[in-house]
């Protein structure tokens, strides 16, 4: 009697992707705080800070770049760090490791979740921006820049989120650590304020992290080229954006491979 | 470590050692569990039960000895080997937003020859909870869902780590009949439990582990010399409770029956319970 063959990888990947999408979109907290939070920020900031940042460009047009970068950070880094830490401490990971599920399927499911949440967040932000605040959509090759900045930034932040999850004791401690760190990063990376008006030493700190480069890359998408002169470097530095984000992808990958655990530390 | 591993056994262990610091949590365990058998591992908390079981499940590494689970070293067990075993962890399978049926359907997709998820729900008595999310279940229902996840892959060998903790008596009875029906389907089971009545009810053989050592393996009725232990016959005579230890209780009862005109008042014949011998065994080794 020959043993029945294991299910094909592609089918297990599809199953895991479906599981991860249901886990996210059925949980009210994750939908409200990860998906809707940037939208709420856009609505509030767009209504309060309605001024001209120069060249007839509204703050909301500037803020679109920042809030999308923050949305990507939330859907990837924050979502992964908290979600995986929770699954590690409640036994989900240990259980999966005891099944013949290929380990890669877990990560494929997570990537599907990040992609779906990111795309949904960006789509809602664009619609709200256009409908409520008359934000100008990108055009032509700007969409291409938009796509690679979002993809590269989201890949770096997903990997970092997976790595960070291993540092936390459980989901609650992950949330308590990651949420304020993300908020501070947003303040110093030019999400809420014009980056050129942030003190230089804060600019320096933020340039070690991916969020600053995501926001900068997206500003090149949403702002007219004339405003590149307002950047501290005097240009959008797209080459450097690609370089730094790629470096974070590599660092994140190494950290993931070295730190990922299927079991809780408290579990022997 | 005298005899070699038994390749025909479901589980074969020789000289198993696991060290934590300078303490041997598992200290030279030898054991064979036959295919089709239900084996219960008993022992106090910290005796090495879960450590032993998690080495067999491939979760933990060992520091010494040889182990074969379904003919495979669990430290090197791949997906194909995992497809043959089912695991019900002490900690359960985690929280989920999925319904019971969705959870089981996803779990079934990892296995080459799974059971029908709806049939498995029926088997564990959760059919009317098929559309309910995990978090809305009671403790006993969640545990049954854990068991369902453990068996949906049609395992040849099922590990059950304290499966009925927190069950009410009725739920435990239902669980026991579930285990018996799995046995009838040919599933080998390794069970750890704190409940001696559960071990006695279900297990073909029990093993007692204390301080990392397997002190005895026997059928439940014979553990600790229970089969040969004198019975205690007790009755009421002249208004006083009397009792007598005897290796031949039948003869004593016949004698009493002759002595009393009708029923022997408050007649009882007792053997030491599994709990009695178990407590004695773990007490001795401390």
Automatic annotation (TrEMBL), chain A:
Protein name: Transport permease protein
Pfam families registered for this protein in UniProt: ABC2_membrane (PF01061)
A molecular-function term among this protein's GO annotations: ABC-type transporter activity
Entry annotated with the keyword Membrane: yes
Location within or outside the cell: Cell membrane; Membrane
Topological category with respect to the lipid bilayer: Multi-pass membrane protein
Keywords noted in UniProt: Antibiotic resistance, Cell membrane, Membrane, Transmembrane, Transmembrane helix, Transport
Coiled-coil ranges from the UniProt annotation: none
Family of the protein in this entry: Belongs to the ABC-2 integral membrane protein family.
UniProtKB/TrEMBL annotation, chain B:
Compartments, record wording: Cell membrane
A Pfam family the protein falls into: ABC_tran
Domain ABC transporter: 11-236
Topology of this chain in the membrane: Peripheral membrane protein
Domain of life: Bacteria
GO biological process: response to antibiotic
Protein name (Swiss-Prot/TrEMBL): ABC-2 type transport system ATP-binding protein
Molecular function, one GO term: ATP hydrolysis activity
Main subcellular localisation: membrane
Cellular component, GO annotation: plasma membrane
InterPro entries linked: AAA+_ATPase (IPR003593), ABC_transporter-like_ATP-bd (IPR003439), ABC_transporter-like_CS (IPR017871), ABC_transporter_ATP-binding (IPR050763), P-loop_NTPase (IPR027417)
């Amino acid at each position: 009697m020959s043993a029945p063959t294991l299910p094909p990888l592609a089918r297990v990947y599809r199953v895991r992707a479906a599981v991860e999408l249901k886990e996210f979109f059925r949980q009210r907290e994750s939908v409200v705080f990860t998906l809707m939070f940037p939208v709420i920020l856009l609505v509030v900031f767009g209504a309060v800070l309605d001024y001209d940042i120069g060249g007839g460009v509204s703050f909301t047009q500037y803020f679109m770049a920042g809030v999308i970068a923050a949305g990507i950070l939330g859907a990837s880094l924050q979502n992964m760090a908290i979600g995986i830490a929770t699954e590690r401490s409640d036994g989900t990971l240990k259980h999966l490791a005891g099944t013949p599920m290929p380990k890669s399927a877990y990560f494929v499911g997570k990537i599907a979740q990040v992609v779906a949440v990111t795309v949904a967040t960006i789509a809602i932000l664009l619609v709200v921006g256009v409908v409520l605040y008359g934000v100008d959509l990108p055009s032509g090759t700007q969409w291409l820049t938009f796509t690679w900045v979002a993809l590269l930034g989201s890949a770096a932040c997903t990997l970092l989120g997976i790595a960070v999850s291993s540092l936390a004791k459980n989901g609650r401690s992950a949330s308590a650590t990651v949420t304020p760190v993300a908020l501070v990063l947003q303040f110093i990376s030019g999400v809420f304020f014009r980056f050129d008006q942030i003190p230089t030493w804060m600019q320096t700190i933020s340039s070690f992290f991916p969020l600053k480069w995501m926001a900068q890359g997206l500003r090149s998408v949403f702002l007219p080229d004339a405003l590149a002169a307002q950047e501290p470097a005097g240009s959008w530095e797209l080459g450097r954006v690609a370089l730094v984000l790629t470096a974070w992808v590599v660092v994140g990958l190494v950290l993931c491979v070295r730190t990922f655990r299927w079991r809780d530390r408290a579990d022997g | 470590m005298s005899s070699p591993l038994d390749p025909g056994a479901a589980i074969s262990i020789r000289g198993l050692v696991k060290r934590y610091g300078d303490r041997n949590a598992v200290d030279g365990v030898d054991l064979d569990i036959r295919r089709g058998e239900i084996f219960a591992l008993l022992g106090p908390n910290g005796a090495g039960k879960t450590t032993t079981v998690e080495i067999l499940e491939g979760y933990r590494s060992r520091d010494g000895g040889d182990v074969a689970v379904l003919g495979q070293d669990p430290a090197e067990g791949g997906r194909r080997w995992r497809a043959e075993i089912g695991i019900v962890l002490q900690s359960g399978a985690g929280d989920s937003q999925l319904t019971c049926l969705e959870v089981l359907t996803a779990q079934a997709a990892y296995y080459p020859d799974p059971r029908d998820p709806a049939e498995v729900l029926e088997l564990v008595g959760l059919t009317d909870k098929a559309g309910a999310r995990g978090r809305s279940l009671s403790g006993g229902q969640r545990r049954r869902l854990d068991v369902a996840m453990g068996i949906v892959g049609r395992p040849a060998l099922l590990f059950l780590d304290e499966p009925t903790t927190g069950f009410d008596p009725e739920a435990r009875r239902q669980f026991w009949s579930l285990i018996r029906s799995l046995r009838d389907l040919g599933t080998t089971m390794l069970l750890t439990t704190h409940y001696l009545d559960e071990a006695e009810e279900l297990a073909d053989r029990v093993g007692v582990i204390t301080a990392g050592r397997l002190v005895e393996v026997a059928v439940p009725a014979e553990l600790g010399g229970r089969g040969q232990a004198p019975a205690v016959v007790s009755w009421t005579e002249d208004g006083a409770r009397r009792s007598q230890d005897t290796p031949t209780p039948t003869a004593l009862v016949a004698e009493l029956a002759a002595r009393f005109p009708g029923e022997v008042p408050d007649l009882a014949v007792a053997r030491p319970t599994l709990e009695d011998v178990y407590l004695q065994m773990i007490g001795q080794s401390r």
